[in-house]
Amino acid sequence: MLALLRRQLPEVLRALAPLLGIAVLLQLTLVQAPARLFVQLLIGALLAGAGMLLLFAGVEMGILPMGRFIGAALPSKRSLRLIVAVGFAMGLATTLAEPDVLVLAHQVELVSDGRFRAAPLALVIASGVGGFAALALLRVVFGFPLRLLFAVAYALLLGLTFLAPTESIALAYDAGSVTTGVLTTPVLLAITLGLSSVIARRSAIEDGFGLLGFGSVGAMLAVLLLGILA
Fold first, then answer.
1. Burial call 14-50: b when 16+ CB within 10 Å, e when fewer
2. Are 191 and 215 a contacting pair, CB within 8 Å?
């Protein structure tokens, strides 16, 4: 465990150092925030670093191996419905727990004065990711061309963009960007790679990737549809 933490520490420092360095530079040259606020920044950066260190270690130690095992075990059950259900459930659950999605949903609720509630919005985003994650797993099973699926999905996305209200368009495209975070990415990627390692008929790179981008499209489509229907 300690060896794993030591191995992850440089990654955490590289992630935090640029942001913290810019904040310190601005504080010394332009901003001059109150000392209390600046100390809070340093304490917050320390806590964030500790949290990222434990998160990255947990992902590498448990989430990735388990995700690959689940993906590799699904074909032995010989049930397409089970593969679809697992893909949807994992996409839904991980997106609902994704910190970036929660931050976006709460910010939207705040600036809209409660017109957009955080919990239903997060559920809509997660449902879009889950639905398209299930479709992406089916693509691995049947070998559908990825470029065809993306062409159809983005054509639908473009069409809905012209129909949806302006505020929904901005929200939808931000929703697509926040779905591929520290929880969703490793879980869905591991499951897809595990599934493709067992049943793929082509290269693992060709069959095992693409799910995350496809899931992001699902989140955008779900928010656009919500805006149109609402």
1. eeeeeebeebeeeeeeeeeeeeeebeeeeeebeeebe
2. no
pLDDT tens readout for residues 100-133: 899 999 999 998 887 888 999 999 999 999 999 9
Which domain, by its residues, includes 137?
Answer: 79-229
Please state the rounded mean pLDDT for residues 146-161.
91
- Which two three-digit tokens encode residue 167? 């505020």
3-state secondary structure 25-85: HHHHHHHCCCHHHHHHHHHHHHHHHHHHHHHHHHHHHHHHHHHHHHHHHHHHHCCHHHHHH
Q: Are residues 98 and 196 in the same domain?
A: yes
pTM exceeds 0.85, yes or no: no
Residue 223 CA to residue 214 CA, distance in Å, equals 15
Looking at the domain assignment, is residue 179 inside a domain? yes
